[in-house]
Structures are given as C-alpha cells and as structure tokens.
Amino acid sequence: xxxxxxxxxxxxxxxxxxxxxxxxxxxxxxxxxxxxxxxxxxxxxxxxxxxxxxxxxxxxxxxxxxxxxxxxxxxxxxxxxxxxxxxxxxxxxxxxxxxxxxxxxxxxxxxxxxxxxxxxxxxxxxxxxxxxxxxxxxxxxxxxxxxxxxxxxxxxxxxxxxxxxxxxxxxxxxxxxxxxxxxxxxxxxxxxxxxxxxxxxxxxxxxxxxxxxxxxxxxxxxxxxxxxxxxxxxxxxxxxxxxxxxxxxxxxxxxxxxxxxxxxxxxxxxxxxxxxxxxxxxxxxxxx
Amino acid sequence: xxxxxxxxxxxxxxxxxxxxxxxxxxxxxxxxxxxxxxxxxxxxxxxxxxxxxxxxxxxxxxxxxxxxxxxxxxxxxxxxxxxxxxxxxxxxxxxxxxxxxxxxxxxxxxxxxxxxxxxxxxxxxxxxxxxxxxxxxxxxxxxxxxxxxxxxxxxxxxxxxxxxxxxxxxxxxxxxxxxxxxxxxxxxxxxxxxxxxxxxxxxxxxxxxxxxxxxxxxxxxxxxxxxxxxxxxxxxxxxxxxxxxxxxxxxxxxxxxxxxxxxxxxxxxxxxxxxxxxxxxxxxxxxxxxxxxxxxxxxxxxxxxxxxxxxxxxxxxxxxxxxxxxxxxxxxxxxxxxxxxxxxxxxxxxxxxxxxxxxxxxxxxxxxxxxxxxxxxxxxxxxxxxxxxxxxxxxxxxxxxxxxxxxxxxxxxxxxxxxxxxxxxxxxxxxxxxxxxxxxxxxxxxxxxxxxxxxxxxxxxxxxxxxxxxxxxxxxxxxxxxxxxxxxxxxxxxxxxxxxxxxxxxxxxxxxxxxxxxxxxxxxxxxxxxxxxxxxxxxxxxxxxxxxxxxxxxxxxxxxxxxxxxxxxxxxxxxxxxxxxxxxxxxxxxxxxxxxxxxxxxxxxxxxxxxxxxxxxxxxxxxxxxxxxxxxxxxxxxxxxxxxxxxxxxxxxxxxxxxxxxxxxxxxxxxxxxxxxxxxxxxxxxxxxxxxxxxxxxxxxxxxxxxxxxxxxxxxxxxxxxxxxxxxxxxxxxxxxxxxxxxxxxxxxxxxxxxxxxxxxxxxxxxxxxxxxxxxxxxxxxxxxxxxxxxxxxxxxxxxxxxxxxxxxxxx
Amino acid sequence: xxxxxxxxxxxxxxxxxxxxxxxxxxxxxxxxxxxxxxxxxxxxxxxxxxxxxxxxxxxxxxxxxxxxxxxxxxxxxxxxxxxxxxxxxxxxxxxxxxxxxxxxxxxxxxxxxxxxxxxxxxxxxxxxxxxxxxxxxxxxxxxxxxxxxxxxxxxxxxxxxxxxxx
Lengths: 288, 812, 166
Description:
By secondary structure, chain A is of the alpha+beta class. Chain A has helices at 14-24, 37-42, 78-83, 85-90, 92-98, 104-109, 112-117, 125-132, 149-152, 227-233, 240-252, 264-285; strands at 7-9, 28-31, 50-53, 63-66, 69-73, 135-140, 143-148, 153-155, 158-159, 166-173, 180-186, 196-205, 208-217, 224-225. The N and C termini of chain A lie far apart (54 Å). Chain B folds into 3 domains: 8-35 and 504-647, Aldehyde Oxidoreductase, domain 4 (2-Layer Sandwich), CATH 3.30.365.10; 38-140 and 216-264 and 271-303, Alpha-Beta Complex (Aldehyde Oxidoreductase, domain 3), CATH 3.90.1170; 307-488 and 652-811, Aldehyde Oxidoreductase, domain 4 (2-Layer Sandwich). Chains B and C meet through α2 and α17 of B and α1, α2, α3, α4 and α5 of C.
C-alpha cells in the first residue's frame, strides 16, 4: 500500500500553518500524528496534494491551566496525556480513555487534536470531550474562534471546521473535585475501534446525581450526546427504574452500522451496557 | 582412560542431540535483524510489479485500456491476459487438477482478482500506474452461497471449462460442480443408522479463514537471457515443486531454473501453492530481462491468496443407548471459490477429510464431499494442519459432544468409551487409514487428572444453578477435545503432487575435519529445522549439533523434496535424515574397523564413535573417522563420507492429544474469558522439547483466533469484508490466553526415530476445544450447536435468541 | 514532484538522502539505508513489524513519512547489539526463552520491548502484555516472548531470572 504524491510543508508557527492551509485550500490536509490519515492515504481513500505537518509548531503542544479550565494543545500525544500527573489528578478520564486507544506505538504519535478533529466516529476522545463539555479552539485565516465539542460533529468525517481552518487546542472545564467519570469501551481486541463505548461525567449530592453528562462512541455517524438519558438520571439515585429508562433513552438515539463488530442491534445494546457500566464506575468514584 | 576423559553422559550432552532443549541457531541472525527474507533481497536493476485488481466479484471485462498506465514515466510494462495468451500463460495449473487464471481472461470471478500486472522502476510508481488503468465491466449475477451453486438457474462461473463435464476427480454434474468424492461403505452405514437406537445429526459450518503469516507472499524473478537461466526467490514452502511447476508452464528446462526460498516469515499453508504474482514476476523478468519483484500487501494477502476451510459438514452419529458409537455419516459441501486451487495431494480432492472417524473405534462410516465453485477467492489450503484434518477433527469432536448431550452422558466419558484401544494398533479405520500407534486412554486419563475434570464439572453445575437463580450473568463452558491427526504425507503409493511422490530427502556431507553440512527437501518457515535436524544428526552421527550446518531452500543444492506443510518435515525429511546418517555410520564402521584392524562386526557404537567390543579404550571417534575417510585409502571403500536418502514413508504418522478449555461467557455482552487451557500432546519421540512447546503455544494461539473470531467474510453481493488486520482477528498478547502444556510419548513404530510431527496438532485439537467450550457453556439452555467464529456479537445473539436478556430485564 | 532532502541519525550514524515526500520511513530505512531488519507486515499500523525507536518513542515506521523523521535519532534492530558485538539482553533473552520462531516480528518486538523496559524496568506480566500489544506475532503465542522480556529485565536489573512455573 503506497500513498499518492503530495507536497510536504512544515510550518514553524500557527499563523504560518493557517496561512498555508488557507492558501492551499481543499487540496491540503493538516498532518498531526497521521495514524488515521496515513493509512487512508496508503489505501488511496485520501489523496491530498499537500500535507501541512503541524509537528514543528511548539505552540500546539502542552497542557496548561487557564482559570478553571485545562487547555491541551492539539498536538499533545496520547502518551503525553497518559504521562501527565497533572491531568491524572484533575481529569482522570482522559488517561483512562487514552489507554483504550490503539496500542503503545500509536499512542506515542497519535494526538488528542487529531483524534477529536478528524471526525471519525470510531475515535474515542470526541465522546469524552462532549461529556466534559470541552471547547475546541480553532484557528483560521479569519482568526480564532471557539466551538463547543457538542456542536462540532456534523457527520462521519464532517465537522464544524471550515476549509482552511484547523484545531489549535482543546479547552476543558475542570470538573469539580469529587466528580465521578468513566469511559467504558467494548472492543474486539487491542487496536480496534469501539463496538460501542460510553463516557459519563457526573457529580453527586446527598447520594443523588446532581449533574450528569453522557456521550456515546461509534454507534452513529458522529459521537452522540445522550441528553435525554442524562436528564432522566439527574436528581435520581440511579435506581433500577431510572437506570433502565436512561439506558433505553441512550439506546434510542443510536444508529450503528452492522459490521464486523456486530449487528446494529447488538451494538445498540452494547451502547446501553457500556453506559450502565460507565455509570456504575462513575458513581463509585464520585463523592457525595 | 584418565580423570580427564569425559564420561558417556558428558559426551552425550556435548552432542546436543535428540531430546535436549537446544537453543535455536536461527535466532542468532533473527535477533540481530539479519534474517534474509524475500523483500530484503535487492538485485541490480530490479523492477517492481503490482496488480490492478477487479472491484467486482463477477463481471465481464468489456474494455481494458492500459495506455495511460504505460505512459507514466518509470513504467516498463503492463501485462494483461492478452499478453499472456500467446505464451499460453494466462491460465496456470493448480495442484488440484484445475486451472487458475493468472490474469483475468474476459471475465473476473472474484473480487480483487488479478486483471493486469504493472511493472515499474519502483513500488511507488507501480502503485501510481495501477490508478491509471481503465477497465470497464459488465456486472454479472453473483454466486456467494455454495448451497445455491448447483441449482439449475445458478449463474455459470467457469465458462472456460463449461463443456468439460469430467474434472480431475471424475464427473461434474453442473457447470459449478467440481467433484463428488465418496469414501467408505454407504450401504453398511445406512443400515447401521436405520437400526441404531440413537442417532444425531448436525450441520457444522467451518467458516472461511486465512493463514495470514506475518510476511505476505512475495517473489523475485531474475532472468539471465544470455545464460537462459532463471533465478526465482520466493516465499515457497515447497521450493522444488515450484521449480517443477515453473518449468512445466514456462518451458524453461528445469536445470536452468534456480529456485531459492530464503528465510520465510511464517507460512501456515499460505505459501504452498503457486500464485499469479509468482508467474507474473517470472514473465515480467523474461520479457524485460530484468529482475522483477512482487510483494503482496496485507489486503491482497487476505482477499486473494489461499483461504482455508469453508466446509459445510453435515455430520451424523449412530449409537447404542449406553453410548457405543455404531456408525458415522458425513456429507460435506465444500466451497472452493472461483478455481479449485486446494493444495492437496493429487488423489485427495478433500484432503484427508476421511480421518473424520477420529480417535474412535467406529465400525462403519461413509463420507461424501461435493466441491463447488463460487465467486470468492480460491484456495482451501491446509492452514496449520494436514490436508482438511482440522475440518475432519472438528466434525467428529463436535458430533461426539452432540451425541453425549443427546444421551445425557458426560462427553469425556463417551470419548473414553469409544477410544481405539492400545492393543488395537495398528488400527484400520472404517474410512481407510491405518493408525500407527496410540495410547488414548492413558493420555486422556492423564489430562483429566491434570485439569481435575470432575471438579470442573462440579463447579460448572453450581455455576449453572447460580445463573438460573440470577446470581451471575456468566455461563461457564468446559471444552474437551481428543484428536487424532494424520500427518507426514506421505507414502508415494497414495500421495503425490503433480505426479511426484511425496517422499522427502536428506543429503549429508561430512567434511575432513569432522564438521557437517546437510540439506533437505523441506523448508522451514519458523519451525527451527536448522536446529532440530542437526539434533537428529548429532545423535545419529555422534557429531556435535554445533558442528552441523543445515541448509534448505536452494533447489540447486538441496535434494528434491516436497517441502514443509502438513507436519510432514519430521515424518519424511526427518526420517530421511536419520536414514542417510545411518548409511554414513555403516561406512564409518568399515573405516573404523580398518583403522583399528578388527573386523567391523567386532565394533560397537558408543555415543560419538566406534569402539572394540569389550575394549572401550580401543576406539575411533567420528572426527577421526571423518579425517581418515579423506586422508588414507581404505581398501574396497570410496574415499569421502557422504550419503543421500530419499525416504518414502511406509505410512502416515498419527499424532494425538487431549485438550481442555475452561471459559466464562458474559451473556450480556458475549465477551468471553479463557480461564484455563491445557494441552496434552503426543507427537511420538520428542526431538527438542523447547521447540515442541513453542509450536504448541503458536498452534493454540491460531486455534484461539480461528475459533473465536478470525474470518474472511463475504457480503451478499460478493464483496470481501474485513480484509485487514483491523477486522481480521489476530490476537495480541493481551487477548491471548495462557497455555499449559503436557505430553505423553508414544513413538511411531514405522518411523526411524519414532517421531510423528507436532506443528499442527495444537491447531487441529485447539479449534474444536474452544468451540466445544462455547457450545458446552450454552448447552444447558437447550442449544445443540453454535457455528464458529464465536465472537462476542454472535454469542450475544445466541443469548438473545435464548431469551436470556429478556429474562434478565424482566427480573430487573 | 521534487524530492526533498532528509537527514537523521540512525543507530548512531548520521545519514541523509533524497526522497519523495511520500516515502514511508520504513522504505527509507529498508531501501535507502539497506537496514532490512524492520519489516512490513500489515500496511495499516496494526502489526508492529516495522517498529523502530524514534527520539525515545516506539513508532510504526510504515505509518510515518521519512520527512517527518527529519533530524530524529532512530534505533533499529541493527543498532541493538553493542559495538563489540555483545548482544543486548533482549536479543539474548529472545533466544534463551524461545521467544521467536519465523523471526519476522522479532526486530519490531525487540525494539518495542526495549522502550518498554526503559520506561518500566521491572514490568509485571500484565504490563508486558499490554506494552507489546501493538506488535503481532503469528508463531509464538506470546508466552515465550513475555518470558524473554522478563529474562532481559532481570539481566538488565542484575537480578537472577526466575522462570515462572507452568
């Protein structure tokens, strides 16, 4: 498998990258870790004429606190997320999720930005970002703007990114101390995309769920925010009846494909079970 | 003798002969990146070939225009069927007596079939040129389901042989029919079934999968037009056979073809046959006078070269009420894809499927196999097994479980009750084979004790009750399998490939200083031949294994042999090695007698030399004898110390084993966990226990993969699904269970060193063991058979069908 | 399309070459540098046969362009033994524990294990299995690979290797 020809660009700054992408237009693709894009290019399912490698841009790296938020540069790798003690303390769900992505080699190279920005419904981080209500900081020729993760995904490989625009950073509101979060992923083996997966972020008060956000991976054309399910659970003690209703509500919004991972019916049910298990773990982790 | 004289035990240990865990000599290069695989070879001026393939599974080629591809700078040639036709190379013979298109001639018959071969300066340009080939197709109705192949209105696939109603294996009753093969006593079997108190019948589908070695199929052809000689490097499990095939189809004399199989990155049956890529590389090199390399990518490998299995096996057993098996009947519908390219010995269209009576003393049996064409890739190779033996063992080992269930008997007990007894060997099975040796009862008892079988059943009974009470959502399965393989093909009286008897060979040369080079007609793909053959020789010749070099794979230097597959290396070439060594030892005895001035009958063999009987201090070591054989004339003996043996085995060998698996299945997700897997193997004499254990680990891992998820799937339109390592289940270290190994040792009575072969046993025995574990887990809920692969979603579907989810919801 | 100049350090040697931007790193290493230890097994970044060490990371060199490795420091299997030929503990461990059969996955497996042990000098069996999950082996069933890595860890740590009971 051999990729088609392209011209390679390696800008040194974000403005330079943005200018290049604007100039080259639709024939150009930004290159982050490349572990989604390069296999697609080898299959000739992607044939960009220009690749703009973001690896030389120092500003796109790193994890920093900004007020009540954690801002992660788009080119931060999964391995760097896993290694960050700071993140492990503030947002343990990121490490938990990153460890479920692909394999060690891919995690060394694969980036958070690439995972959330390319719009592949199989990627794990988008659902987590939706559950965390993260915001994506986009850079484009017309300037910077922010789009909520919950507004970003429009279809398989279709996102809110405008032509020439790229993801610069992910900004996540730090959940309050004592929050509980979990990501449950069912996959056939290491290196696979989810058959179904669920992200849950919640807080408890007096034994009841005070706030709750739920998102699902790879059971539709986009990651799915399960608002109804979260709404059902909020204010409850996650009793059996509420749980059953919430799971049914989450399953109702799925539209998975039948593929090697299983039939659509199976994958829908697995979304429900992943949700059930993620909820159980998030509840156990939450204080209050 | 003095204190410095090594003891006999020390001298034996120094040889590193049979039975010791000798470290592998191959590893020295492999661990340093110095293996030499086909794609590592670079010849001056080398070009690179790649295929344009059909996107359609069944279509007529209306127009094939390669002009744009040819115009791309760096492209040297584009071959199509039209180019090959004048050379009569657009089709090539298969090992099964059929022909196979090298490049599609007017019609394509499976998705990804080879249509054109681009040859360019490098692989990047070749890939670009493929994009520039313009081909127009007229789509034709697709035949995917083999059960519809023989219907009157089925689309006709093979127009090239539509008038040829007698195939290589007899009459064909439909254009899509390949053969009907019957073995055994039909009437006797029917009678036994008609009067039997208990019968069971079940159809087991052994799904389509693929051997998928980590190195794909590859070749590098280099034609020297001045000398008229072709050198062909390739991933060949059987290099001599490839040389003969190339000679037959190219017209080049066989002595001017140099076939070299360098290091091979795993074979598992994938690299036995001849593929379009090999032929096109050869033709390209002949046409262009430059070396041409062809390297498959993984998608091509999974979707085109040699699938395995795809057998629909309707299996019946007849028995008494107390579980004595009276008869077996088996009907197989075999999906061979677009061409019959099974790599079986010529006379065996369904391989050794007739080993399907297994380890049991079944008085009468009948087997019938129909092979049919479909719009799928061709193959049917023996993926880590002797020809169709995993299919046969799967059929009987599932059928025994189904019978036990019907009888309400424990399936291990049912097996023990029907085992061929030790005193019945050599045993003549109802479907024709003569089993050489075995002690099944002993092996089974050892295995059942090791796993505490009765304890497991007690635990399972408790877990089932807990499941019924809703206390757990897991069900526990205990997999049992007891297999008998038939390997080591084979005696030339019943086994040949293209008319060449399936013997194998060894040539040994002892150098003046007492070191050795030995060559065989087999070819290791990871089995460690360089290590183990040297161990056989070390014991037989009394020369340290470290002083013996083993060389395989170069047809110029190695004696003719049929290659490595079907666990045949040890039974055939291993025997040839021992026999050739014995010729040398006989001559060495004459030399020693001359040197010691005694009659040769007065000498006896002692570890590493000959000594005068009763006078152990009067001895000549093999090293001394080797020197003498070159150094001084021995009356009535030729100088030198060499021997060749071509070994035509008198019989196959019949390794066997007892496997147990304990598995827990979460009925809500279908996710399973293998809690324990125990494998007891009896491969006769054990040459290197370390390598045997490694082979067992590897075979079990492949069995795990095949039974629990590995699959080449086609959709209803004939599209091949999931032909990449994303979907095709190759377990990683995380999914792979821990393996426990054990053994008994029942030597083969007819093999010179008693060895039987082991590389494939764990696969053959492992697949039914896993499948039996799954089926056993569900059986208390009333199921009799669930088809493989047992991946999570299919197990969940079974649980859904059984109402296990609805029950749980109602309970909640 | 114009070729571009790349330079990097491979096994301690400064190397350079002219490549198309689309040239995969594995092809640069194998075809230009003639270091054929790393292999291509799957083409889709699943099997890990192409694994090399790049700036302290295990990477799949079939899913990187050579241009992305500009200025990088790379170790391949050919650079694992000491300059005097002494084998690395992993190379020795793989042989001693029968951690390979056909040898095709071995270079990638050893390079991955190398980085794993640098990051976690005394890994548990579970950590080893998780740590090499990006490398597929068709022959061994991994059990002896795990032992080989444990053997190497013990040797590097200067403690006696205790083979786990079967």
